[in-house]
Design goal:
The protein is an alpha/beta fold. It is built from nine helices and twelve strands. The strands form five sheets. A three-stranded parallel sheet has the order 1-2-3, with helices on one face. A three-stranded antiparallel sheet has the order 4-7-10. Strand 8 and strand 9 form a beta hairpin. The radius of gyration is 20 Å and the shape is elongated.
């Protein structure tokens, strides 16, 4: 099977060093496997999109020597596809409308692996006089396991650890979990290399793949680049953007963070760096945090 990977930044600001680590890992893995590599803009949450950020990200990727296949996919153009899938899940009773507020959920739910687990208030139907605002996906007590290429085996029981999760938000936007599964399936992605912050989301995405009849994807979650306080670098915290005029040091820094062997001499150009990366990438030397 041909390797199909991707890099999917959010256009909420310029590309920074933390994002570059994920881009370098996914691109190098695709190159090492002689595969395809695509770029997708995860702008499903249009309220967080910064005008001009997508173009700036693509320019930065080009300046750093990244080459992708096909057109860049924007989630904001795929609303009808997401609605189609959500309606199908509702029609087959795989999902349901929820009227609960955050306060109600916090009061009635219990602590899970990523916050409060939804208590199932609307699972059997909306309470009298209430109107559904969000759409939740039904979960059950089966164990969902996957073998991460970096950190090994992981398992969750979604009903216990996460609960019925949102696939369409109360503001009408499609939730990330549904959008990313639909995009990966429709783009033919079969290998996902991304940050470790998304490791806990993976069983939810595998569950959606199963319910929607999509092929299962193989995953590798790489260590995050953290700031001095041990926090993930993010655009929200004004992480410093990359310099388009001096790309090689940034590429080497990302490469070293991923535990990869440095070339004996400083590459003169991004193209020289990627020629090295193609034949020297080794995901077995990437250490999970």
């Amino acid at each position: 099977m041909t390797y199909h990977g991707r890099f999917a930044p959010s256009p909420s600001g310029p590309l920074h060093a933390g994002s570059l680590v994920a881009a370098v890992a996914s691109h190098a893995d695709a190159l090492a496997h002689g595969g395809q590599w695509q770029v997708r803009m995860e702008d499903v949450d249009e309220g967080r999109t910064v005008p001009g950020a997508a173009d700036a990200i693509l320019r930065t990727l080009e300046c750093h020597g990244f080459q992708w296949q096909g057109e860049v996919l924007f989630q904001s153009t795929r609303k009808e596809r997401y609605r189609e899938l959500i309606h199908s899940l509702l029609d087959h009773d795989r999902a349901y409308w929820c009227a609960c507020t955050r306060r109600e959920i916090h009061t009635a739910g219990h602590e899970g692996i990523e916050g409060i687990v939804y208590p199932g208030t609307c699972r059997q139907g909306l309470p009298p006089g209430r109107t559904g605002k969000a759409v939740r996906l039904r979960t059950d007590d089966r164990k969902i396991c996957f073998q991460d290429r970096v950190s090994g085996k992981h398992c969750q029981i979604l009903s216990r650890d996460v609960g019925d999760f949102i696939i369409q938000r109360a503001d009408g936007y499609t939730a990330y979990q549904l959008a990313v599964v639909a995009d990966d399936a429709d783009q033919g992605i079969n290998q996902v290399v991304r940050g470790e912050d998304l490791l806990l989301s993976t069983p939810r995405q595998i569950w959606l793949q199963k319910l929607l009849g999509f092929p299962r994807v193989e995953y590798a979650h790489i260590p995050l680049l953290l700031d001095a306080q041990g926090r993930k670098l993010s655009k929200r915290d004004k992480a410093h953007p990359l310099s388009d005029s001096n790309p090689v040091p940034a590429l080497l820094s990302a490469w070293q963070h991923l535990g990869q062997a440095l070339p004996p001499e400083m590459p003169a150009t991004p193209e020289d760096f990627w020629n090295w990366a193609r034949t020297h990438w080794n995901i077995d030397t990437v250490q999970s945090q």
